[in-house]
Write a structure and sequence with these properties.
Distance between the termini: 34 Å
Oligomer: single chain
Number of strands: 14
CATH superfamily of the largest domain: Crotonobetainyl-coa:carnitine coa-transferase, domain 1
Number of helices: 18
CATH topology of the largest domain: Rossmann fold
Largest sheet: 7 strands, mixed
Structural class: alpha/beta
Low-confidence stretches: none
Mean pLDDT: 97
Helix content: 40-55%
Strand content: 5-15%
Number of domains: 2
Shape: elongated
Strand order of the largest sheet: 8-7-6-1-2-5-14
Length: 397
Amino acid sequence: MDAPLAGLLVADLTQNVAGPYCTQILADMGAAVVKVERIGRGDDARAWAPPYWGGESATFMAVNRGKRSLAVDLKARDGLGILERLVGRADVFVQSLRAGAIEELGLGWARAQALNPRLVYCSVAAFGPDGPYRDRPGYDPLMQAYSGIMSITGHPGQPPARVPVSLVDMGTGMWAVAGILGALRERDSTGRGVEVTTALFDTALAWTVFQTNLYLATGEVPTPQGSGTAMIAPYEAFPARDAWVMIAAGSDALFARACEALDAPALAGDPRFASNPQRVEHRAALVEALSAVTRALPADDLLARLAKAGVPSAPILRVDQVAAEAQTEASGMLIPAKHPRLPDYRAVGLPIRWDGARPPVTRVPPLLGEHSTEILGELGYDPDTIRRLADRHVIGL
């Protein structure tokens, strides 16, 4: 079961990160995804470079495998007709245009449902359909700023820091997939299509659930915690002699084990550190005392002691080190695939297995318009018509 969505057709009118990440997941699950792109320019992410991989944007390639590309001028009547025909045959339509743009094209939910009553229609928005900001654009860093994420990221007293991972964009793509799968189940039960909406801002708020609950419960405004977290101690990075090590002693028993492993009985017996609430209250003193112990040990020794005692801990690795790790290799998450232009191509796979198998890379990220002729043929256009559309620059090949 490595292709549970095999047989489903997805019309993908998205760009940047959130929408493409959603449709890449659907493609990894076996759906046939047609990426509809602007003729001549394509997805904005094609120009998000350097870095390049070969001559292509590494950013674009990260979230667009498994898809075929159809380049079309949607401002031309014949071009819009192509999209309408595709939507009429699709099981799922995903769009992430600016607020109001899909209605300007004449393919809002009502029109799309009239074309295809069984269609699952997913809109990936910035702020969603309601509220004073519903017409504003949105990107991951804006949402990290506006949602409060940046106010709690980084170290106290330092400038605001963005989480470099596009967690809002990619999280929204994941929520879109969850919504689509639920809608497909509903469609299979009732026979009717479903409208699904998700928004970057909603995702950003969802990621702050712990900090928001802290504020709602106490009225205290959360602040940056560096590598730690506000409600557990010790649960952060500590200095070893030659590196930094993450220690996550998330219970009283684990803290006692850590003290024993580090030959620090005074810490275990200190009444200020007797329970997690007391350790949180006296965090600064705890971090100072524990750092004095860890700083005297080489990182490998420190990690070995903690591992032997069953205390959760980890080295803080660079991306190149992670790529070379034995656990990364064993996970099968870096998937090689044949690529016509990149002999060293590998993709970061879908973090799901079915019956022990991870989905393979079925298609490498497409060139702009690479599959226009093939897709139009499947939609019923004859070769002469396709050629005329290309000559008039309605489609790109």
